[in-house]
UniProtKB/TrEMBL annotation:
It comes from Leptolyngbya boryana CZ1. Residues 10-135 form the Response regulatory domain. It holds the Pfam family Response_reg. The modification 4-aspartylphosphate is found at residue 68. This is Response regulator.
Amino acid sequence: MMTSHARLLKILLVEDSRSDAVLIQRTLRGSKLVNELHLVRDGVAATDFLYRRGEYVDAPRPDLILLDLNLPKKNGREVLAEIKADEDLMTIPVVVLTTSSDEADILRSYQLHANCYMVKPVDLEQFVEVVKSIEHFWLALVELPPEQS
């Protein structure tokens, strides 16, 4: 089931854990809704991707960002704050997908205007189910902002 925008979607995955990134990529790769999945492994690379700097000069604008909080170089809170403070980026939905269930992290993420906060389960099957739920909700049910260049 595709929403009325009927376009294949671009996701930016900001994740430093190789095993989590591989699992998320494998789960989403089977999707009929995801056209492009881009992976960056730290907060600096994430902002370079979004602002099309350096090696990311030709990067597409993502339709959805999956953001880990605990990142090297620049943490996910800083990346989230930058995205939501930028008029050109603030409409991109950001799903915080992290190991932290700390109430302060949850509260701070929503104060920074995260669109969703999900804790990564330790159990492999539950982790796959979380990724599938993100896919189903954000890519099949929700109307995302119109494509921009």
